[in-house]
Structure of Protein SDA1:
Amino acid sequence: MRYATSKKTSKRKKKLEKAMKVLKKHKKKSKAEVFNFSAIHLIHDPQDFAEKLLKQLENCKERFEVKMMLMDLISRLIGIHELFLFNFYPFIQRFLQPHQREVTKILLFAAHASHQLVPPEIIQSVLMTIANNFVTDKNSGEVMTVGINAIKEITARCPLAMTEDLLRDLAHYKTHKNKNVMMSARTLIHLFRSLNPEMLQKKYRGKPTEASVEARIHEYGELDAKDYIPGAEVLEVENQEKEGGNQEE
């Protein structure tokens, strides 16, 4: 019996050591993410910094990897701080071609640089470039999938940029023979069912729910101001119950 007990103890010890190693790795990863997140949020005058970086990028004669790093940083600054840097979008559109090196990363930069305060017509130009260059039947299913997914990510951040015509054309790919294209089109439809079902054709709206009936994309610059504090009604109910309890006593 002593042998059996020691065997169980050693197994538990090994399991504990293994779990501790996993925990340490997880902590290291978490710390790195928090550090990166904090640094970019604490930049002084991000608008001026981003403008200077864009000028540097436009005149950059360095290798492509350096340009990629600059585009990455500028796009993150724009998205996190909701900056106005309108010249960045035409610059990045030049690289939005299926054959372009590292094009998936560049599409991600376009998504990072999209936010609700950018005038919709500026982002619409980016969407149309992606749709015309990627989402056409002459391209492979993989290229089309990348294009639709990029459009979805951008419109999730800036819904007003999507037009009814473009959404209708993309929704038709729901029945495409390529499974990946079909699934990408369906995720885009699901996104607009939650954002603004009215933009979809009736056959794509699905069954109306309480959330979908109330769903509406705010106009450019419109704030969702409330004349009440969400959740305050719970306090009123609790006060009424307390008062009722005191009266019974």
Remarks:
- The two ends are 62 Å apart (CA to CA).
- The chain is about 65% helix and 0% strand.
- Residues 43 and 222 are 27 Å apart (CA to CA).
